[in-house]
Design a protein that fits this description.
Elements: E1 2-7, H1 16-30, E2 34-40, E3 46-47, E4 50-55, E5 57-60, E6 63-69, H2 73-82, E7 86-90, H3 95-105, E8 110-114, H4 118-121, H5 131-142, E9 147-150, H6 153-161, E10 167-169, H7 186-192, E11 201-205, H8 218-223, E12 228-232, H9 238-244, E13 250-254, H10 258-267, E14 270-273, H11 282-289, E15 294-297, E16 312-315, H12 320-332, H13 334-348, H14 353-376
Helix pairs in contact: 1-14, 7-10, 11-13
C-alpha cells in the first residue's frame, strides 16, 4: 500500500504521538508499504525509508514546541506525484485539514486517528469555555473519515458520545526490544537521584506541560520519607514546575533517549503519572516493559493498561490522598513491588509495535475494500 500520512507533529519533536508514529512508519515500511509523511518542517527529509514532506509553520503561542503548518499547494503536487492508495490524518487540526481536503479532491479513502484529548487540554490553558466548540470541530473533521482510530476503549466511548462515527480501537504498542528490566543501572540511579541511590526514587517521564498535572506529584514526594523525584523530559511548563518543586529533592533531568531513557525507567522504584487527560499513556507501557511499577490516575485510557493491584496502582484522580497511599504502599511493600514488576513486564510484552502495525494495515485494507464494493456491484 501507498499511504499519505498527515500529522501535526513529528520528529525531531519528542512525545507519545511521535513515538507511536515513528514506530508505525518504520513497521509499515518494513512490511512492504510506502509511506509519505506530511508534517511541520523539522529538518528531516526521510525516516526509515519513508519520505518526509516538511511544511513550514510558526510556533503555537500557548505551546511554542508545537508548530502550526499551514496547507500550501506543494502538498497537492507531492500527493499527485506519490499517487497514494489512501490518506491517514493524525489529530487533524491545521495541516490535517489539507489531508482531508485532498482525500476528497483526489477521491481517496480517508482514515483519521485521535491521540490528543484536546477538549480536556483547554481547561489547563484557561480556555475551558471553548470545549463545546472544540468537540464540534473534532466531530466535523473526523466524520469525513471512513474509519476513526482511537487508542483506548475510554476514548472510543467518549468520542462516540460526542457524535464521532465509525470508531475502532487501534491497539497499544511498545518497543519491548528497547525497554527491558535488564537495563537497570546503579549509575543511572545515582544520576537520577543526584547522588542518593539508596533513597526511594520516584520517576516521571514525558512532556512538562500544564495538562500533565505534574505539580500534583509534589504532595506524594513530600509524604514519603527521604524520597527523590526525577522529571525526565522538557516542555513549556518547565519554569513553573522548577519554581513549584524548588523546595523539594527534584531533579529536572531534561530529555533522554535510547538506552539512557530505557535505563531511567528500569532504575526507578515507581513511575508516578497524575495526568487525567490521557488517551492512552504510552509512557506507562514503556515503564511497565522496563519493569518499573506505575501509580497512575484512574482516568481516560489508563485503565486499559494498568490493572489496579496487579501490574500497578490506580488512584481516584480527584483524591490527592489516594495517590499518596498508593505510592507509599508500592515503595514500602518490596515483595508486592517485585510481583508487580514481573506482572508489568508480562503485560507490556503482549504489545509489540509489529502487531499494532499489522492491525493498522487491516484497518487500511478495510477502507480500501469498502471503496471497491460499489465498483464490484
Amino acid at each position: 500500500m501507498r499511504i499519505a500520512l498527515f500529522t501535526e507533529t513529528f520528529l525531531p519533536k519528542v512525545d507519545g504521538i511521535v513515538t507511536r508514529l515513528k514506530h508505525t512508519v518504520d513497521h509499515l515500511q518494513r512490511q512492504g508499504n510506502q509511506v509519505l509523511v506530511f508534517s511541520p518542517e523539522g529538518g528531516l527529509t526521510e525516516y526509515r525509508g519513508a519520505k518526509i514532506h516538511g511544511v513550514s509553520g510558526f510556533p503555537l503561542p500557548l505551546y511554542p514546541e508545537l508548530k502550526l503548518a499551514l496547507p500550501r499547494p506543494s502538498i497537492g503536487e507531492a500527493l499527485e506525484n506519490f499517487q497514494p492508495d489512501l490518506v491517514h490524518v493524525v489529530n487533524p487540526a491545521v495541516l490535517g485539514l489539507a489531508g482531508i481536503y485532498y482525500s476528497k479532491t483526489l477521491d481517496l479513502p480517508l482514515v483519521a486517528s485521535y491521540h490528543t484529548h484536546l477538549p480536556k487540554y483547554l481547561e489547563h490553558y484557561g480556555l475551558g469555555m471553548l470545549e463545546g466548540l472544540m468537540w464540534e470541530l473534532i466531530k466535523a473533521m473526523h466524520n469525513q473519515a471512513q474509519i476513526n482510530l482511537v487508542t483506548s476503549s475510554a476514548m472510543q466511548t467518549e468520542l462516540s458520545e460526542h457524535g464521532v462515527e465509525n470508531i475502532e480501537v487501534w491497539q497499544r504498542g511498545v518497543d519491548t526490544e528497547l525497554f527491558r528490566p535488564e537495563l537497570a543501572s546503579a549509575e543511572m540511579r545515582d544520576r537520577l537521584s543526584q547522588g542518593h541511590p539508596e533513597a526511594p526514587l520516584l520517576l516521571y517521564i514525558g512532556r512538562l506541560s500544564a495538562e500533565k498535572e505534574i505539580d500534583r506529584i509534589k504532595p506524594v514526594l513530600q509524604a514519603i520519607p527521604n524520597a527523590r523525584l526525577a522529571l525526565v523530559g522538557d516542555g513549556p511548563y518547565r519554569a513553573e514546575l522548577e519554581a513549584h518543586f524548588a523546595d523539594t529533592p527534584t531533579n529536572f533531568v531534561g530529555y533522554l533517549g535510547g538506552e539512557d531513557l530505557a535505563s531511567a525507567y528500569a532504575s526507578a522504584d515507581a513511575f508516578v503519572f497524575p495526568s487525567r487527560t490521557e488517551t492512552l499513556g504510552l509512557v506507562l507501557l514503556e515503564a511497565m516493559a522496563a519493569g518499573c511499577p506505575v501509580v497512575a490516575a484512574n482516568s481516560g485510557g489508563i485503565p486499559d493498561i494498568v490493572t489496579d493491584g496487579v501490574n500497578g496502582f490506580l488512584f481516584d484522580p480527584t483524591d490527592e490522598e489516594g495517590a499518596i497511599a498508593a505510592t507509599r504502599r508500592l515503595i514500602e511493600a518490596k515483595a508486592e513491588r517485585e510481583l508487580m514488576r514481573r506482572n508489568a513486564v508480562a503485560e507490556a510484552e503482549q504489545w509489540g509495535w509489529a502487531a499494532a502495525t499489522r492491525q493498522l494495515q487491516q484497518f487500511y485494507r478495510q477502507v480500501l475494500a469498502q471503496r471497491s464494493l460499489p465498483m464490484a456491484a
